[in-house]
Amino acid sequence: MRHSFVLSTLKKLLSLGHLSPSDSVLALCAAGPEQQVFSEAGLRVATISNLDDRLIRPDFPPYSWSLQDAQNLTFDDNSFDHVFVSDGLHHCSSPHRALLEMFRVARKMTIVFESRDSMLMRLGCRLGLSAEFEVEAVIGSGMDRGGVNNTEVPNYVYRWTEREFAKAIQCFHPYGPCRFQYFYGMNVPVARLGMYRSPIKKLVAQASVPVAKLIEWVVPSQGNSFAMVAHKPGPDELWPWLKRVNGRVSFNREYAEQFRANAKS
């Protein structure tokens, strides 16, 4: 987890009134780092979840625990005020499915921290400063987990764009207007840089860090820390071509008449 960036983003959401300390939060692909950052942010009601059955009796006070696969959550729709994940979607074999499960279970916000598919990140992969497959995560986890779906197979690092995030959610929820927020930052890949043994590679890697930070300062969206937030519309916030009848969303026939009239004019 990119702790400082996650913490600063949560504090921004709190200061904007989008998040409240008493709101319920479900954290996916989570463990101790989420416990720490939630505590520092002042969040009081949270459920830490993970699919790793070795954490089946973890202790994350004051938060509760649930064994969950992010791609197949057992919770009902709108079970939590917010659903949160930090650097977890790219460990899923279907990141979009996990994202939509998050959105389904959330009442208010879906909060996702991942890497952005930017030109700087693509250049970083070519230079070896970042990776397309997360081998170091598996190595750092004892070579028996930490990869795709928490197996020993290194996962492909799926990176996102703002447009892709919004399109996926709006396909899943075509009922009303969702609102989106994005936050940007820079996280130096210390773990990967530390794996280099060649002095030349180490020197190139170290020299690249201030250059990357300068680019990120000038063009924030090129940073490798990326937060995507989807605000879920309320049950009565419908597009004008829809209406709710007896609890069911139906096409608004009055809108059809208006649509035809506008088409003729």
Helix content estimate: 25-40%
Strand order of the largest sheet: 3-2-1-4-5-7-6
* SSE order, one letter for each helix or strand: HEHEEEHEHHHEHHEEEH
Number of helices: 9
Report the β-strand fraction as a percent range: 15-25%
Sheet of most strands: 7 strands, mixed
* Class of secondary structure makeup: alpha/beta
Rg calc: 21 Å
Mean pLDDT: 88
Poorly predicted sequence stretches spanning 5 or more consecutive residues: none
Report how far the terminal alpha carbons are from each other. 55 Å
Oligomer: single chain
- What would you call the shape? globular
* Count of individual beta strands: 9
What this model shows, in words?
- The protein is 36% helix and 20% strand.
- The chain has helices at residues 3-15, 32-41, 95-105, 119-126, 135-140, 162-172, 190-193, 199-218, 253-264; strands at 24-28, 45-50, 64-67, 80-86, 106-114, 179-185, 225-231, 242-245, 248-251.
- It contains nine helices and nine strands.
- It is globular.
- α1 runs parallel beside α2 (32-41).
- The N and C termini lie far apart (55 Å).
- The chain has 265 residues and is α/β, with parallel strands linked by helices.
Please describe the structure with a list of short key phrases separated by commas or semicolons.
9 helices; alpha/beta; 265 residues; 7-stranded mixed beta sheet; 20% strand; globular; two-stranded antiparallel ribbon
